[in-house]
Design brief:
Number of helices: 6
Strand content: under 5%
Radius of gyration: 17 Å
Order of helices and strands: HHHHHH
Largest sheet: none
Distance between the termini: 45 Å
Low-confidence stretches: none
Shape: flat
Mean pLDDT: 78
């Protein structure tokens, strides 16, 4: 039930993803870090269930929108589209075992 509410919240937050996209990259990364750290800290540190539940809902909702904004901001930091594309395509993802074997 809690995850479902978070998913619905993420779908609603998706309509406002452009707010995050308007931020300059450094400002967005600070806001991103604060939201992620605060929600994780509240999940673990709260002994009052409503606060912990609200933190889980916030975390679930935000993590549905976060990849969209990160992908939109990523090409701004790389010289070529191929470099930015490599971070988000599974065919370019290597496991630690692949790296150690070569």
């Amino acid at each position: 039930m809690i995850a479902a509410v978070g998913s619905i919240g993420g779908a609603l937050l998706g309509w406002y993803a452009y707010w995050f996209d308007k931020l300059r990259p450094l400002a967005f990364y600070w806001v991103d870090g604060v939201i992620m750290a605060a929600s994780i800290a509240l999940m673990g540190a709260s002994s009052w269930p409503p606060v912990a539940i609200a933190a889980v809902v916030l975390f679930t909702a935000y993590t549905r929108v976060r990849p969209i904004v990160l992908q939109a901001k990523n090409p701004q930091h790389h010289e070529t589209h191929l470099q930015s594309h490599a971070y988000f395509c599974p065919e370019y993802v290597y496991t630690l075992g692949d790296v150690l074997r070569h």
